[in-house]
Write a structure and sequence with these properties.
alpha/beta, elongated
């Protein structure tokens, strides 16, 4: 069971969860749906863990797809199996479509191998490639924990250009983004541009003039313990993850770690009929384009 679920179970002082149990017992499904919509995935997971199987199945089928995927990451392995054992490929595609790739990588490890292969083959090329990148690293490393939704920028652009760039991203800005990663033409990490410096700096200054060189990147092979230690020591919200080719992703403070097992290793996709491919840098013109490692301004 995940750390979040354990915390909720131990407290068991959520009046909404208790109220939902009472509503289920009364059979008022419409009221149950309304109350269910106010709970977060960890609270729903706690509810599912504590209900008898019949009521658990009712609640599970009431969840919207975007909530189902997040909830599966919070329940125990046995509950996850019971909830998903009869799910079709279409069901899996629906609930995983909006998951972050690091969370999806966690989830596919618990799926039957054949189903994993079919799910991966059903993805578009870019999402499949990004998932393969995360799965190519052991789960208890920075590479295995990272998310690939990084935002990079070149050092020679002005803050005015950088500000317009971030506005264009808008609601697609990755969660917990507190800085942009500065890279050269080859995607090599140079430093960071904290968002507070971006909004307070002179628009005519270049990124190179105000970027910070203090934040050292994390190697993709860095152990999970060392990742956690760095976040605690330097009070980080996010940090770049690199390999020999350049920046491959980012680790961030909100990353789920409850399902991490140091003795567990991910099964590479090539064992299910896919071959792992190294990330390729995408070089674009002077405009925003999606790239295999996130979003970049070149």
């Amino acid at each position: 069971m995940s750390t979040l679920v354990n915390a909720v179970v131990e407290s068991s002082e959520n009046p909404q969860v208790d109220r939902l149990r009472e509503i289920l017992d009364s059979g008022a499904m419409r009221s149950a749906q309304k109350l269910l919509n106010t709970l977060n995935p960890a609270e729903v997971a706690h509810l599912l863990e504590s209900l008898p199987r019949e009521q658990r199945d009712i609640i599970w089928h009431m969840l919207p797809d975007e909530m189902s995927g997040e909830t599966l990451l919070e329940v125990s392995d046995s509950t996850q199996f019971e909830l998903t054992k009869d799910m079709s490929l279409e069901d899996w595609l629906a609930i995983t479509d909006n998951l972050d790739l690091d969370d999806l990588a966690d989830l596919v490890q618990d799926m039957p191998r054949q189903l994993t292969r079919e799910l991966v083959l059903s993805m578009d090329d870019q999402r499949r490639h990004l998932l393969e990148t995360v799965l190519s690293y052991p789960e208890d490393t920075a590479g295995g924990l990272m998310n690939t939704d990084v935002v990079t920028i070149r050092p020679d652009v002005t803050l005015d250009v950088a500000m317009r760039f971030t506005r264009r991203i808008g609601d697609n800005m990755p969660k917990d983004t507190d800085k942009l990663f500065v890279v050269n033409r080859d995607g090599k990490y140079l430093g960071v541009l904290p968002l507070w410096r971006l909004v307070s700096g002179n628009p005519e200054d270049s990124v190179a003039e105000i970027m910070s060189l203090d934040l050292k990147p994390m190697s993709a092979g860095l152990s999970a313990k060392d990742v956690a230690r760095r976040f605690e020591t330097y009070d980080l919200i996010s940090a770049p993850v690199i390999d020999e080719d350049g920046i491959v992703g980012r680790s961030y403070h909100g990353r789920r770690r409850g399902r991490l097992d140091p003795c567990r290793r991910r099964t590479p996709i090539h064992e299910s009929g896919r071959s792992l491919r190294r990330r390729e840098h995408v070089r674009t013109g002077t405009r925003l384009n999606p790239s295999p490692c996130g979003m970049a301004w070149h």
